Every structure is written in structure tokens, then in C-alpha cells.
Amino acid sequence: MDRRSLFGVGGLSLLCTLGGHRIAADGDEADLAKLARDIPDPPGLRRARFEQVAQTQPAVGGVVREHWIQAEPVRWTIVPTRRDEMMDERVRGRTTFRALCYREYTAGWAAPLGPGQVPGPLIKAEVGDTIVVNFRNKGPAPVTVHPHGVFYTSDMDGSYKGKYTDSGGFVKPGQRFRYVWDCREGTEGVWPYHDHGPLDPLPLYKGLFGAIHVRPRGQRENDVDHYIFFHSFIPAATGLGRIFHCINGRAYAGNTQTLRARVGQRVGQHVIGMNNDFHTYHLHGHRWRDPSGRMVDNVTVGPADAYSLEFVEDNPGRWFYHCHVFSHLHDGMTGWYLVEG
């Protein structure tokens, strides 16, 4: 057993039960379309309403932040270089699969604003704003968009609730739904959004997640902001022969996102956990104060937790950022942070 086999073994057996099927994390890829056929439409489901954005009124001083987002399949390669630059080793085996992504479009889904990515588009707002997500599902099974942190009414929850499900919690292939969320006082911060539909959590494990950043009104943005998702691609979602512990859809330094800054810049880093595991975020050569005022350089982030840190960059060089759970680190959850002097 080599090092990669050692760190890839154990830990995840039974993931969940979906549509009467027991889905194992270390089994074959689950067929979402087939699983969805076994889930009946909720009894109160109606055709999703799709009002015009002009009907939405933000708070005084706020604006409507409108997005056109589509869930769609994308061919995704987890290790494009096929190398782990931290250990200077080749990563063997298949690393490409059919992922699901949230992809942003121009109004009316007229044209994509870029390629499909994991994670999905960053949604930015300020306190007092209203976020409108015009959502269309082009995937193989019902999926949704469920937000954390912001305010919404029960019909805008974006979650499957069995027989109590609203339209926004069961958006079938080819259908659309218009989510409306308010950024009231107390919603400032960085929050995840993700699928919470009837096949949860498999679509999330295939890539359906992203971030919302709500700032206090009028607050100056950092010179640089980094958004860092710790998550996993598991065999039940990929059909690949092993688990990949990832940052923003990729695994291993040289493949994960290379973060960049310059000395003197105000840097914000926002870390979100998006799988079953607890992670610890460590940034080499740097430290910061936690909310209690204590200096730290390694913090714990749990499932769907978000943690933000800020500092003025003062240490040029090539640094690692990574999860310090050692099995996660050596299974791909590490990357480069490059600071110019």
C-alpha cells in the first residue's frame, strides 16, 4: 500500500439513502436521472412562478442584484497537470468526470458569461440589497439553489421538504425558478449556497455550490479577496476509483487555484467547508487575530461553515495554503499562495 492508497482508504462508507437506494461513497457513480425517476413529485407542486424582476423592491438605499444562473453538466478534470507539486509526484489514474455546475449567463440566459466552473459564480451584495437568482435547470434531475445567511421567505428556501415541498425545492430538468433573498441587517458575511433538492447531497458532491458575500453598506472592498472551498469529489458522484480532497474543484498544488497578492495589499480570505468533514485552514508564513483577539495561523471549519480572515500582506514569497487534516492535505487539499514583494 503506497502513501496515496493509505490516505485514500476508509472513513467514508455509507453516505446516505436517496429515493430508497443506499448510496455508498466508495461505490460506483450514482445515476441521478434514474434515482430521480423513483422520487414522486411533491403533492403540492405547481409550475414554478417566474415574475419579472421589476416587481422586487429592495430596502431604502439598496439595489436589486440580479443573476441568471443555470445548473448544467460540465466535463471536469480534477488534476489537469497530473502532478502533485507539493510532493513532486505524478498523480495516476483517471481524474476527469461529468460534474454539475452553476453557470452564470446574461439576462434571459442569452449567453454564458464564462465557462462552467466549480464552485459556481460569486454572488456579491451589500446590506439593504435584494438578491434575485433567476435559475434554470439543465441537469439530469431536480436540483435547487439554497442560500445560507440571507433572509428569505419559506417558498424561497430552495430545499426539498417531502410532501411539504414548494416549487423552489424541486426544480425539474428544463424548468426554472426565481429566488428572491433579502440582505437585511445581520446578514453581512460570506455564506455558501448549494443544491438542497431531493437528491441532496449527491449534486453538491458533483459540484453544485458557490458563495455569497454580503458586505456592510458602503464598506470598502479588500484589495484582494480569495474564496476557498474545502470539499470532496467522491466515487458515488464521479465514478472514479478514489476520493479526491479538493480546493475549488481541483486537487494538489499546481492544480488547485493559485492565490496571489502583493506586499502592502489588504487581503481577505474566506474559507468554506462543503463536505462531511471538519477541516483546518493553515496559511504558511502568516498569522491573524481571531474574533477573540488571539493570534492564530490554523483554524477549524466544519461542514457548511464559513470563516473569514483579513491581514495586510507583509511577507513575500511562495507559500502553501492547505487543510491541516493530514489525510486531506496529502489527498490533494493544498495549493500555492504567491506574494510579490
Q: Could you characterize the architecture of this molecule?
A:
This protein is mainly β and 341 residues long. It is 7% helix and 38% strand. The protein has five helices and 23 strands. It has helices spanning 3-8, 32-37, 202-205, 235-238, 326-330, and strands at residues 14-18, 21-24, 64-77, 83-84, 89-90, 96-105, 123-126, 130-137, 146-147, 176-182, 189-194, 209-215, 224-233, 244-247, 259-262, 266-273, 279-283, 288-289, 295-296, 298-301, 306-312, 317-323, 334-340. The strands form seven sheets. A five-stranded mixed beta sheet has the order 15-23-22-17-20. It has a four-stranded mixed beta sheet with strand order 6-3-8-10, with no helix packed on it. A hairpin with a 5-residue loop joins strand 18 and strand 19. The longest helix has 6 residues, at 3-8. It is globular, with a radius of gyration of 20 Å.
SSE arrangement:
Layout lengths: L2 H6 L5 E5 L2 E4 L7 H6 L26 E14 L5 E2 L4 E2 L5 E10 L17 E4 L3 E8 L8 E2 L28 E7 L6 E6 L7 H4 L3 E7 L8 E10 L1 H4 L5 E4 L11 E4 L3 E8 L5 E5 L4 E2 L5 E2 L1 E4 L4 E7 L4 E7 L2 H5 L3 E7 L1
Parallel strand pairs: 3-8, 7-12, 13-16, 15-23
Antiparallel strand pairs: 1-2, 3-6, 4-5, 8-10, 9-11, 11-12, 13-14, 16-21, 17-20, 17-22, 18-19, 22-23
Quick synopsis:
7% of the residues lie in helices and 38% in strands.
Report the average pLDDT across residues: 90
**Total strand segments:** 23
Helical proportion, percent range: under 10%
Shape: globular
Low-confidence stretches: 1-14
Order of strands side by side in the largest beta sheet?
A: 15-23-22-17-20
